Amino acid sequence: MTGNGLVQLTAKDFKSDQEVRWCPGCGDYAILAGVQSFLPELGVPRENLVFISGIGCAARFPYYVQTYGMHSIHGRAPAIATGLATSRPDLSVWVVTGDGDALSIGGNHLIHALRRNVDITILLFNNRIYGLTKGQYSPTSELGKVTKSTPFGSVDQPFNPLSVAIGAEASFVARAIDTDKQGTAEVLRAAAQHRGAAFVEILQNCNIYNDGAFDVVRDEKDNRLYLRAGEEVRWGEKGVRMRSDGTLEIVDASAGGLLRHDPLRDDPGLAFALARLTWEGAGGVPLGVFRSVSRPVYEDLVHDQVRTAVEQRGEGDLAALLHGADTWSIG
Amino acid sequence: MSTKKVEHLDGVIIRFAGDSGDGMQLTGDRFTSETAALGNDLATFPDFPAEIRAPAGSLPGVSGFQVHFADHDILTAGDRPDVLVAMNPAALKTNLRDVPKGGTIIVNTDAFNDRTLQKAGYAENPLADGSLADYHLHEVALTSMTVGALKGIEGVTPREAERSKNFFALGLMSWLYHRPTEGTIGFIASKFAKRPEIVEANTRAFRAGWNYGETSEDFAVSYEVAPAPLTPGTYRQITGNTALSYGLIAASRLSGLPLFLGAYPITPASSILEELAGRKEFGVVTFQAEDEIAAVGAAVGASFGGALGVTASAGPGVVLKAETVGLAIALELPLLILDIQRAGPSTGMPTKPEQADLLMVLFGRNGESPVPVVAASTPSQCFDAAIEAARIALKYRTPVYLLSDAYLANGSEPWLIPDVADLPDISTSFAEANGEPFEPYRRDPTTLARPWAVPGTNGLEHRIGGLEKADVTGAISYDPDNHDQMVRLRAQKVAGIAADIPELEVDDPDGDAELLVLGWGSTYGPIVAGVRRARKEGHRVARAHLGHLNPLPRNTGDVLRSYPKVLVPEMNLGQLAMLLRAEFLVDVVSYTKVRGRPLGARELEDAITTMVAS
Q1: Can you tell me the ipTM of this complex?
Q2: Chain B contact for A195, CB < 8 A?
Q3: Mean pLDDT (whole number) for B384-391
Q4: Which of A193, B72, B409, B605 could form an S-S bond across to B533 if both were Cys, CB 3.0 to 4.6 Å?
Q5: Which residues of chain A from 153 to 192 reach within 8 Å of chain B, CB to CB?
Q6: A108 to B457: CB separation less than 8 angstroms, yes or no
Q7: Residue A107 confidence class, pLDDT cut points 50, 70, 90
Q8: CB contacts < 8 A (A, B)
Q9: How far apart are CA B268 and CA B452, in angstroms?
Q10: Cβ atoms within 10 A of the Cβ of B235, count?
Q11: CA–CA gap between residue A199 and residue A271 (Å, rounded)
């Protein structure tokens, strides 16, 4: 028992009776375990937690978590979550999605949920491939990627999920790695505490169709650039400095004048620039919270209007509504 | 009161027609309000282009408003206008073919010049070439008399003065048909309150029109239409979309559930979103979504959370929602999908009515996916249809389609306002934990509905989704027999609603009719009117109307088989007829028209007469 009389839950309490059916070795196992072990510390009663997903490997997630859940249809989870969160602000609503689900078929719903700042937490498992349909390229697959549907290599410019989120006015944007238990927990903690739409990209290895996609940062821990508020942006011997024109450059960390991370900056420019640092360009992959700013929350505004209407006009009177202003009587 | 000769009429059909910017909808609305206040029965049909302002004076830019009023109960806005008010040559040209010979035409002569005639495609001025000799033509210099009457009002621009001409026309028509004027004077005062000079201008124009009728020798006679003997009670005028919106608010109250509307703007459904967005004091939450799919998705999310989830759209939007409706079928959650039908396919004719979405809402989804369908029959009946659709959705935990159309949406009629205490109880209950493991797909033995367990209920944590469920437990299942059973259970659940809806009522005065006319949806008015006409001619005709399209009333087959001939009029190419033939093996005959206009009483009379004789 905790001090407030609630039963202290453990990770086990968040395991459902369903057999987990991802491929052996899938990165999703680590994420599931990470979320289940994080949820107890959230302090939200199980019945007030809802996981909503679309379609894809990641979308099986809700079946395995002992909370309320909905495995919906391809791409639409943010829309369904928006309806639920808006009508039930008392709930803690989570969306679990993948790169195809969130950025292809559901791209429209993703960006609108973010710009509205609905109080939901979106976990995007990015494995840069379509797994459930057995290996076609996804909207995050790199140019030239050879897959079943791109035997001559992909000619599609990929999305950078964080760039999309920041461009869509997201108030919270973060990134973690499936196997990085501590980093994932930190990011989830911050995301869960954030009021408004929180967007978390989790780099996830698909060992069947895109094995090793993130080895450079998943296995090579030295290449991880952990962003921490108030601290210098640096990893290993390298650091990030801002040029006079506002662009970022990678320098020797000992050179000094390194950028200090400030996720609270209202202007999204710096978060966007950091999101553009890639292994290919910078030799490191930034992780952690890129942006966390306070913006009015959608459902707060919605229910404020309802409250104001009731205050100003009184509780709706159905008979008066039906009569309207202009009636006449017969007989 | 008028000093001129007064004639009594039992009913009149007037059509106001002008440019989109001429204020014809407002004029028609006001004339209708005056008519309602007088106690006539009435029906209206606003008919306007999808373009907000098509090029001035052009044929596509013509906007019309037809009002039918009478001293007896009437059912339609009328087939053909007795009186046409044409504000310009284009309005005359596009509407003349509907006016019967001998009808009255009032034209604004100021709008007839070389340029406007050319725009309307007239080689000769029809006012001068004798082509209107078969009509009672009143040539009225509406614009110049309006401008003249408004001289000296400070702050009114010449353009604004000209725009008051619709109130001149309204004043003239109000005189001609003895309409009470106080309501319109009051309306002008409140509508334009922010600009007193416009109040003055419109009031003066209105009075000038009235006075012109009284003094001009061109109008020798005025007409009276006595009040209709309607059922005693309090009435108001209401359009279908307003009635639908009120029905949803009432359903929310009657069920004790908050109303959540997810919608994306689309003609002719947008006014439901607009109406409900202004009713937040009823706890209504409206969500203008990024697209049609998000609109219905959010409604499903709200339903999952225990709200009355609703989405409103028209055909091109409803088709986008199909996959989500399928999800709601699998989830077995309540959901209302309003389809305000318009002429299709594709964008079609957005402001014009059609009934061609019936088979789409019945069958336009993947898999065996039965959905109850309710259809509204008149503008005011939209109120009851909304409550009925909600009742079925909540009781049977199912998505329900509610069909209306552009004719009902914008058309209006007097509505005998119901007593709130007489409205049905549609309350429902959420599942509660009882210590046993929760079984989300254990069904109520009578309704076959599954429990509605909303998040926030301790002990009922569960997962639902679009994957096939095991019966009772709701776990994912690929078991062949289980799937077969679940498909049949979902079908039985919807089919079983037949026991919970009224039997099909037949109007057959002598019980020996040789022909049954069976309709559904907004053809109600024209069918009743057409059958009346046929009966006056001595034909023995029975009539019935379907408000539930799925399931059909349980006696439908018996009714069909008890008449030698069955005629099914529809504003599509025979969709209900196809269903009836498939379901009951009855050789029904279709009467179909897809002109983007309501069916006419006279054409139905002709169809009935022909069929009786055959």
Answers
A1: 0.97
A2: no
A3: 98
A4: B605
A5: none
A6: no
A7: very high
A8: 208
A9: 33
A10: 24
A11: 13
Rounded CA gap, B554 and B497, in Å? 9
Measured torsion, CA atoms of residues B375, B377, B383, B386, in degrees rounded to the nearest 10 = 0
3-state SS, residue B543: strand
Q: A244: distance to nearest CA of chain B, Å?
A: 39
Q: Do A235 and A223 form a contact (C-beta atoms < 8 A)?
A: yes
For the record, the structure tokens of A172 come out as: 């919270």
* Per-residue tokens: B614: 């055959």
Q: What is the mean pLDDT of residues A25-33?
A: 96
Q: How confident is the model at residue A1 (pLDDT cuts 50, 70, 90)?
A: very low
Judge if pTM exceeds 0.90: yes
CA B312 to CA B278: how far, in whole Å?
Answer: 16
Q: Are strands B259-263 and B285-288 parallel, antiparallel or unpaired?
A: parallel
Using the beta-carbon criterion (under 8 Å), do B456 and A91 form an inter-chain contact?
yes
How far apart, in whole angstroms, are the C-alpha atoms of residue A317 and residue A109? Answer: 35
Q: Which of B590, B576, B598, B154 is nearest to B410 (CA)?
A: B598
SS (H, E, C) chain A: CCCCCCCCCCHHHHECCCCCCCCCCCHHHHHHHHHHHHHHHHCCCHHHEEEEECCCCHHHHHHHECCEEEECCCCCHHHHHHHHHHHCCCCEEEEEEEHHHHHHHCHHHHHHHHHHCCCEEEEEEECCCECCCCCECCCCCCCCCCECCECCCCCCCCCCHHHHHHHCCCCEEEEEECCCHHHHHHHHHHHHHCCCCEEEEEECCCCCCCCCCCHHHHCCHHHEEEECCCCECEECCEEEEECCCCCEEEEEHHHCCCCECCCCCCCCHHHHHHHCCCHHHHCCEEEEEEEECCCCCHHHHHHHHHHHHHHHHCCCCHHHHHHCCCEEEEC
SS (H, E, C) B116-139: HHHHCCCCCCCCCCCCCCCCEEEE
Residues 415-474 of B with CB under 8 A from A: 417-420, 455-467
Question: What is the largest distance, in Å, between two alpha-carbon atoms of chain B?
Answer: 88
**SS3 call for B413:** strand
B309 touches chain A (CB under 8 A): yes
Spatial contact of B71 and B37, defined as CB atoms under 8 Å apart: no
Task: Residue A316: count other Cβ atoms within 10 Å of its Cβ.
Answer: 18
Distances in Å between the Cα of B464 and the Cα atoms of A52, A98, A149, B220 are: 10, 19, 32, 74
For B4, B303, B498, B553, the CA distances from B494, given in Å and listed in that order, are 63, 19, 8, 12
pLDDT digits (tens, 9 = 90+) for B55-111: 889 999 999 999 999 999 888 999 899 999 999 999 999 999 999 999 999 999 999
Q: Which of B176, B283, B257 is nearest to B223 (CA)?
A: B176
Q: What distance separates the 2 farthest-apart alpha carbons in chain A? A: 94
Q: B240-268 b/e with 16+ CB inside 10 Å = b?
A: bbbbbbbbbbbbbbbbebbbbbbbbebbb
Residue with tokens 């009629």: B413
Least Cα separation, residue A232 to chain B (angstroms): 39
- What is the distance of C-alpha B343 from the center of its chain? 13
- How close A34 comes to chain B (CA, Å)? 20
Please, which residues 40-79 of chain A have a Cβ atom closer than 8 Å to chain B? 45-50, 52, 55, 62-63, 66-73, 76, 79
Find tokens 């549609």 and name the residue. Answer: B426
Average pLDDT, chain B: 96
Alpha-carbon distance of A16 to A39, in angstroms, equals 14
B297 neighbourhood in chain A, CB within 8 Å: 72, 76, 79-80, 82-83, 109
- The SS3 of residue B534 is helix
Per-residue pLDDT at B2: 54
Q: Which two tokens stand for residue B94?
A: 């596009």
- A36, A60, A66, A80: which to substitute to probe chain B, counting the most B Cβ within 10 Å? A80
Taking a C-beta distance cutoff of 8 angstroms, is the pair B137, B219 a contact?
A: no
